[in-house]
Amino acid sequence: MDRKIVLELVDLSHGCVIADSVVSGQAIAELESALGQSLAEVRGGCYLELDRQDAVKVAGHFAETLPASCMVHVRAWLGHDDLPYKIHTQRELLLMLGGHKPMAVFVVDLQYEENRELIPERYFAPYVQEGLFVERIVESEANGVRLLTVLYAVRDQAWRIDAWLLLKKTAEKAGWSEGFERMEGSLLGYEDWQNDAHIELMARRRASSGKPA
User: Fold this and answer.
1) 167-196: per-residue pLDDT in tens?
2) What are phi and psi of 82, to 5 degrees?
3) Between the chain's N and C termini, which has fewer beta carbons within 10 Å?
4) What distance in Å separates the CA atoms of residue 119 and residue 125, rounded to the nearest whole number?
5) pTM for the structure as a whole
6) What is the rounded distance in angstroms from the CA atom of residue 99 to the CA atom of residue 120?
7) Which domains does the chain have, with CATH numbers?
8) Burial class (CB in 10 A: 0-12, 13-18, 19+), 183
9) Distance between alpha carbon 59 and the CA centroid of its chain, in Å?
């Protein structure tokens, strides 16, 4: 399969991806030439944050000019990019403000203090203070690993926070299942057809890896 790179346009005021563009084949070499650097190290969940000068060079993938309020990330193409919809990751806040997502959940490993920075609290804080969103912070331990979970819900959907926590607690006893996967997706605001596509993708991955269903 041809290597693929994803360019993401990020709105700095909300910390959200607002557009993306997939680059593959020869276009990657052209991109590397324009940036004057190899992108071979951009793999897995890592991403490269372009400085303003380099971001302007690739702005044509999104628009004629790069808005002053935006930056560009470069990341590897991931399995979820094959889904027929955009996942909510790094789009949570704008989706919630737009009424398209009722709740967002962020979980990090507290073994590394810098992981706290992965939770976009500074972007959500103004809306929590305004009373538009409800915030819940939970510290827990699983298999010797300390976890920090921060949940946000639109105020009239705050019940989803307790439902999500109960789902996770139950799954710890009963084991994770497709049913729990679907429930979690629904609590986070994914539609049924999106949950179907997600479950199908997971099944294909298991089949290709030889893991049991």
Assistant:
1) 999 999 999 999 999 999 999 999 999 999
2) -85, -5
3) N
4) 11
5) 0.92
6) 19
7) 4-82 (3.10.50.20), 100-209 (no CATH)
8) middle
9) 22
